[in-house]
UniProtKB/TrEMBL annotation:
Reactions the enzyme catalyzes: (R)-pantoate + beta-alanine + ATP = (R)-pantothenate + AMP + diphosphate + H(+)
GO cellular component, one term: cytosol
Protein name, UniProt field: Pantothenate synthetase
Pathway: Cofactor biosynthesis; (R)-pantothenate biosynthesis; (R)-pantothenate from (R)-pantoate and beta-alanine: step 1/1
Miscellaneous note of the record: The reaction proceeds by a bi uni uni bi ping pong mechanism.
Highest taxon in the source lineage: Bacteria
Gene transcribed to yield this protein: panC
Native species: Magnetospirillum molischianum DSM 120
Homology family: Belongs to the pantothenate synthetase family.
């Protein structure tokens, strides 16, 4: 039988628990999440268990990374099920603070990574990455882990966090972990739960189109031809609209026309009110 994961809600308790481990010379990893855990999150936990002696997961639906009219209120919250999954996986501690613990009255600080936070998801979700950078810098300072793990599905988020950690000299190693997919290719996401059966049947086109476009780019095609055509195929497949489908340089996210350096083909598209994102890696 697995040991039940301990849950702490106060930063002071979190710090005490982590300090005790650190004093024993144990390495600590952090897996920040917003809960509604799926196999993608559990893959972050298992990678964390491989690289550290103790693993802290956080669950916090961070209000400041949601824009007005976005899904903050309806974002799935299922702490008991999440805690059971974390226990089974062997996670050592769950930090699940209330909003007032993270943002007490008078909270006035924002962390903003310029450049990387603009464009792609930043264009459709103004302020989103400021909310992410702010909460992730707080979590990193609260836990002070040696390693922090993030999924590659949110690729722009990962790039923003890497840059923030570098720019602010935060002493942590940031690891990106590969996307986990359903059998039909759909990247796992807590937001897949919003899809109707009909939308769910359309959704795998996202990855199919990315893969076909990646192949055409690898064969020497130009992004400026292939990406708009790929966006049109998504609409033809049943997506309501495409926010972006673009080839970017892997680290800087600068737009590129062909794959001469490690690159990413990134997409965000909408099925009804649900916005799905995905990406694939391309190497020269
Ligand atoms: O990827 C997420 O779930 C969130 O953006 C994160 C990194 C936990 C910050 O709230």
């Amino acid at each position: 039988m697995s040991h039940e994961v301990d849950i702490v809600r106060a930063v002071a308790d979190l710090r005490n628990r982590v300090r005790y481990w650190r004093d024993q010379g144990l390495g600590v990893a952090l897996v920040p999440t917003m809960g509604a855990l799926h196999q993608g999150h559990m893959s972050l936990i298992s990678h964390a268990l491989e690289v550290a002696d103790r693993v802290v997961a956080s669950i916090f639906v961070n209000p400041i990374q949601f824009g007005p009219g976005e899904d903050f209120a309806r974002y799935p919250r299922q702490e008991a099920e999440d805690a059971a999954q974390l226990s089974k996986a062997g996670c050592h501690l769950l930090f699940a603070p209330q909003v007032a613990e993270m943002y007490p009255d008078g909270f006035s600080t924002q962390v903003r990574v310029t450049g990387l936070s603009e464009g792609l998801c930043g264009a459709a979700r103004p302020g989103h990455f400021d909310g992410v950078s702010t909460v992730v810098s707080k979590l990193l300072l609260q836990v002070q882990p040696s390693v922090a793990l993030f999924g590659e599905k949110d690729y722009q988020q990962l790039a923003v966090i890497r840059r923030m950690v570098r720019d602010l000299d935060i002493p942590v190693s940031v690891r990106g972990v590969e996307i986990v997919r359903e059998e039909d290719g759909l990247a796992l996401s807590s937001r897949n739960a919003y899809l109707t059966a009909e939308q769910r049947a359309i959704a795998p086109a996202l990855y199919r189109v990315l893969c076909a476009t990646a192949e055409a780019l690898a064969a020497g095609g130009a992004a400026s031809d292939l990406c708009p055509a790929a966006a049109q195929s998504l609409v033809a497949a049943g997506f309501d609209s495409v926010d972006y489908l673009e080839l970017r340089e892997a680290d800087t996210l600068a737009p590129v026309e062909s794959v001469v350096r490690p690159s990413r083909l990134l997409v965000a598209a909408r099925l009804g009110t649900t916005r799905l994102i995905d990406n694939v890696a391309l190497t020269p």
